[in-house]
TrEMBL record, chains A, B, C, D:
NCBIfam families: aroC, PRK05382.1. Pathway: Metabolic intermediate biosynthesis; chorismate biosynthesis; chorismate from D-erythrose 4-phosphate and phosphoenolpyruvate: step 7/7. Belongs to the chorismate synthase family. This is Chorismate synthase. It comes from Hymenobacter roseosalivarius DSM 11622.
Length: 359, 359, 359, 359
């Protein structure tokens, strides 16, 4: 198990889908930062199930309790511990999977690795664990805001329905204007329609989240292994259901020639160093260059479907299984705050690490 | 700086492109493993410049010296230190970039981060650093071979020229049969033709490397943050010029519905648990499931081109710059042994970590 | 801040003296270990305040709640989270120290480091934090017991009152037979008498805890930096009020000549390798050799005394201060379970790490 | 194996006593620090064998080669790699110990842990490894000097011959004035006399090194586990032959009452916060308070003696063994630069870590 992430701004999460609760310790948040439970709760509310008809109807208040690390409204430099108790634990829904290996779930691999597993709702492998990340990410966001850094992400594709333009042509203030968290209203409608159709067919659908970070100063990222995009990539790939990560020109960049792909530097009127294009995605040699950082994260369709499927049980015998319980037909809308959280956690860590770069 | 990778099988690299040399310490290699300088040298020879007309003519013997950690032909459990001295240091080729910020290179970001840089050949940001990774990866490969695990990778795309079939329809024994390291001979010819045309136009071209790992037992990978694919992704993204990573169905998987994407389990005639499809890419919940692991790595076109480009110097003044020195028109053929090395390093680490999973 | 300890069996603690509570996440405990809340509670009860007239009358039930990581009575390999809520928070006792820098406390240094502090009961610097260590140590002890390793410690000195013989001449089953946790009944009486006299003089007194570990197999410890005794030393020195650590012959060993100090090996009747003396304290070259491990830990007298003292406030002005609240006149009896806990945590970690030593 | 030390200023050492050489990578040294090979060589010369008739006559130039990390005389923020080749490898001296388990050496424990060992001169367990620490420590000292922090240590006891006064009554400029590195000339004479007598009796003798650090600002140290004294303690205990560590009042402090031991704060004429006594040894709550830091390190007598000893071989058979080769009768004089190095490494790391304490 490895339940910690970050080197200086470091989180450690715990908890299972149907246990007592989910939580996180943040170790290394600098002292003197104003943090309130409200800030954290607002972030959690974005990830909470049951926000719209596009998501699981599992009802969880996801109320955060701050156990330590704050005094008179500010951080003290000591570990911040956050607890979110589980409420709607419909564990009886899972008796049928106690011995089943659900297709494309982690049942089989957890059994192989640990010899046993908490089968209720996926136990530790449930995406419910990401609530702890979102709570911690809200604290990281506060730290970044102090330095003018803002991370935002949105749903840019659901199945084959994609936003036809890049992030720089969108108004990211519109992300929260619809249930699917796509700032392009027309595309959002088509996405929501696809999700509802998929849900009604008892199926699930995947998609892509695009992340954008603005206000990052040049100099964040720790080569040669902890390059900024390498840490972002690991962070995103650690989220449930993620299958791919690309930044800047990404996979499409392989189709360009060097003469097309290179980002020429220039000095703008204000005397700031900028690049004429940004195929680099704001990162060169693993270090931020002051331009916008942007990246894409691919999510597979949710593995739990309500249609019957053939698979095996833990005796190797063939069985037929149909999903029960309450599940998201599409994870993308609720993935947005999770991508935000992981982005904030990476940047907060890199911000602190960069303080040791020079004498 | 962060120049270490891995938790239990841990490497730390050092060295600059035009300094004394490049090297690595491997800390945590178990005792009792047979390792020879020849094994390491063979891996280095695959990455060495000047192997064909597709790569830089920089002439480096890349001769490895083992400084510690072996006794009577076997590892002792103590750190293994490897040194590769630089030979062909044509540093005078770089006087023109001392004050220039080359487009899409790390000159500007290193200056912003550290306040200074070794500008000769890119200094620490040069891909020459990956020689150390390849040397260490050869030791990791020996460890994995002991347990029947074999990683292979190949060039699956150069520019728009792509292998038309998946890895499972290729004979991976053919990877070394041509200079571009593509096991599909017909596609290889077209790739080599494209690389030569690009070189003659004084341009560069990117592409994709596909990695495949066979023989991995179920149970490797450390959720929730050090998932097997998250570590692989970070490892690949830490390689120079990489812009994206996907595993299993990857970005294309976002276009499938859950009912299409799910991998049904079955028991084969030998009684082994297998899946009928492998969209999961051999990893579920961040843990290997015993099926083949496969992934794709996107490389951008090399930033150094011999055409003149407009950019700025460290005073913010506009300058015109043309690449000098000896450069690869396409990094893909030499990227294959680097992808292999990072794959081996991740798996060796995960193999050792998995020993602590159960009482 | 650094609130984590251990590499593979790794704990992270949180909480302040007068906040919501104290807790810990254990990450890396192998799956399949039987653990109950009772086991943990029993350990906590040994550290709990108010056990006798020798300790602070602060009344804390120190009731542990298991938040995650167990399923059907056994560990699952996922993080184990434990929470102990604070109850008897007499925070009004601390208003007088809000701006005071108490002598030999951490008030001044926390202010210098973090710019602010939770002054109530010492906040994070309070020894109350060690409750989390004791809870985690109880889980580590379960793991060690599975492999036949048993750690015990006892009070060997209070002020100038010392046990006149070595651990091997004592019956360690008597540790719990008296309130001071000294297995030599006659010395225990003198210790308790000294503590009561000291308390009545409104003063405090220090002393020494001796630790003994039996059943450790040869091979634990990770040179050259994480030597077994170096990790034990760090663990002990991280406990509040500890001023020194020695193992085996320790400081007294500096008075012996090599010919007196060396431990000759021999083979006993059962064919086991043993040493005729054990000045090495069971550790050679940083690795356990199978003999008993023993060490000593020096605790200073508690800094809070009820006598008036002259010091300064956070404006640099001279003030007179007298301790209020409920404090231990001697920390030694309650230090015993803390030393046990840290010993168990070090050994559990080293046990898991040793699994990666050989092919 | 764990061959790395430090979190932000991090070293990784390699090499064996009779292999190719000894070396170290420093990762995390800030950019812009002036460092020369001379500075490092000067430190190595203090540790070098053959400096006087008190130490082993093994002849090693211990010439350092800088392999990376410097450019135009200053650090670049990239890893600094240092190599010291072995020269005087009289490996034939060790044929007699190939199968022997020398008393109080690490032969037996390395065999138990790794299944094999490089028996020549102790291999990796040799104190020759500390040359790498001294080289790295010289770089750390440069960083600390930049901030006005100076660490010094000296031999305060050899066998029963001890300096009769505390460090504050000594002129530490006299440390290098004699071969035993004791700044009290009269005591130094008695120490040297004892060492020569011991050598002539073919025996060895231990002793104590006292360390002093001046100029440390308040605020260094990372509670609750990486307390400044806990890291210093681990660092010292990781040095070969060390059996104990104490700081401030140490073990003697257990004999004082709280009213005697507490360090009262006051404001001096210059307005600086100081303490009237310094039983705390400059560290409170694990954080430096701006007063002098001082500590003691106990070294056992060297295990290799030239007298015949009875022990066993790796078949468990009783054998008689006498030391051959060239050995120190007393390790203390050469331990001084090693203690200095580890002190500097701890403080450099804590200095960088403290930069992340506040917003």
């Amino acid at each position: 198990m490895s339940n910690s992430f970050g080197k200086l701004f470091r989180i450690t999460t715990f908890g299972e889908s149907h246990g007592v609760g989910i939580g996180v310790i943040i170790d290394g948040c600098p002292a003197g930062l104003a943090v309130t439970a409200d800030t954290i709760q607002t972030a959690l509310d974005r990830r909470r199930p049951g926000q719209s008809d596009l998501t699981t109807p599992r009802s969880e208040a996801d109320k955060v309790e701050i156990l330590s690390g704050l005094f008179e409204g500010k951080t003290t430099g000591t570990p911040i511990s956050l607890l979110i108790r589980n409420q709607d634990q419909a564990s009886h829904d899972y008796a049928h999977v106690e011995h089943a290996y659900r297709p494309s779930h982690a049942d089989y691999t957890y059994d192989m690795k640990y010899g046993r597993r908490d089968y209720r709702g996926g136990g530790r492998s449930s995406a419910r664990e990401t609530a702890a990340r979102v709570a911690a990410g809200a604290v990281a966001a506060q730290l970044l805001a102090h330095y003018g850094i803002v991370a935002q992400s949105y749903v840019s594709q659901v199945g084959a329905v994609a936003v036809p333009v890049g992030y720089e042509q969108l108004d990211l203030n519109l992300i929260e204007s619809n249930a699917v968290r796509c700032p392009d209203p027309a595309t959002a409608e088509r996405m929501m329609s696809l999700i509802r159709q998929t849900r009604d067919r008892q199926d699930t659908v995947g998609g892509i989240v695009t992340g954008v970070v603005r206000g990052v100063p040049a100099g964040l990222g720790e080569p040669v292994f902890d390059k900024l995009h390498a840490e972002l990539g690991k962070a995103m790939l650690s989220i449930n259901a993620v299958k791919g990560f690309e930044y800047g020109s990404g996979f499409a960049g392989t189709l360009l020639f060097g003469s097309e792909h290179n980002d020429a530097f220039y000095t703008d009127e204000a005397g700031a160093v900028r690049t004429r294009t940004n195929h680099s995605g704001g990162i060169q040699g693993g270090i931020s260059n002051g331009q916008d950082i942007y990246f894409q994260v691919a999510f597979k369709p949710v593995a739990t479907i309500l249609q019957p499927q053939t698979t095996i049980n833990d005796q190797g015998e063939e069985i037929t299984l149909a999903g029960k319980g309450r599940h998201d037909p599409c994870v993308l809308p609720r993935a947005v705050p999770i991508v935000d959280a992981m982005t904030n956690l990476v940047l907060a860590d890199m911000l602190l690490r960069s303080r040791a770069n020079k004498v």
